[in-house]
Input
Amino acid sequence: MSENSPLAGLLAGKKGLIVGVANQNSIAWGCALALRAAGMELAFTYQGEVMRDRVTRTVSDLGDVPLYDLDVRDDAQMASMFDDLREKWGRLDFVLHSVAFAPKPAMANPFIETAREDFLVAQDISAYSLVALSRAAAPLMPEGGSIVTMTYYGSQKAVPGYNVMGVAKASLEACVRYLAVDLGQRGIRINAVSAGAINTLAARGVAHFRDLMRITAERSPLKRTVESEEVGRTCLFLASDLSTGITGETMYVDAGFNITAG
Ligand SMILES: NC(=O)c1ccc[n+]([C@@H]2O[C@H](COP(=O)([O-])OP(=O)(O)OC[C@H]3O[C@@H](n4cnc5c(N)ncnc54)[C@H](O)[C@@H]3O)[C@@H](O)[C@H]2O)c1
Output
């Protein structure tokens, strides 16, 4: 987005937390670039020491930004991050939740073989974490705010290889609707963006992912896959006052793939 874009300055003065950047291919990074270009001040998280250097390098493009170690399963770590943000910024206007994980066997084996423990891990990291994050962030949004999460069409249809993650995304989208009801009275909106297939670190854990990219490009009305920048601009819209009437929704940014018959 150029400095002359009508969107530049749209989010000036707003402060946002981005959870889910692993590297420059991450959808969360595409969102961060769009939000930043529109003037939002950003803080980021990384998932443990293993990810720290990579995420630090990625976000360094944006200068000196607050960076927190956060495993979304760790409530104490989450609480201390929000305490620190409250001290630093006093408030928060936006949170992006762009996090998902399922153990390898659950993604590789037929769905019927999913172990109870693997099912629970997928639900915990990919769906419950949105509830925990929203609950912890809401007190920092006394004048309202916006929360966005990332989902995928495998929540609605049985997409080959998406398995336990499809079930977790169905749960995530339902969480968005119930959270929207609880947060609405506080002026906080929450929405999901259902992105089309994008080649990222997490996507490589999905069997037949390259086939999925190819089929999407062939079948979608726009005859292509989407870029994380396009997801980012929708995220910008949902973070901004352009979308004040929208909450509890799942918005598709998938070149129209979801409206076609298989
Ligand atoms: N890539 C796609 O095709 C696609 C399509 C639709 C939706 N999505 C969703 O977008 C989101 C981002 O994924 P991505 O494709 O950008 O991949 P990515 O690998 O770049 O991002 C996934 C992020 O989840 C984080 N994460 C996993 N477990 C975590 C934990 N316990 N605590 C904290 N962070 C944790 C990882 O560190 C990583 O930053 C996910 O929810 C994914 O399901 C991806």
About this structure: The pocket of nicotinamide-adenine-dinucleotide is lined by residues 20-22, 26-28, 47, 51, 70-73, 98-101, 125, 150-152, 195, 197-198, 200-203 (CB under 6 Å). The longest strand covers residues 188-195.
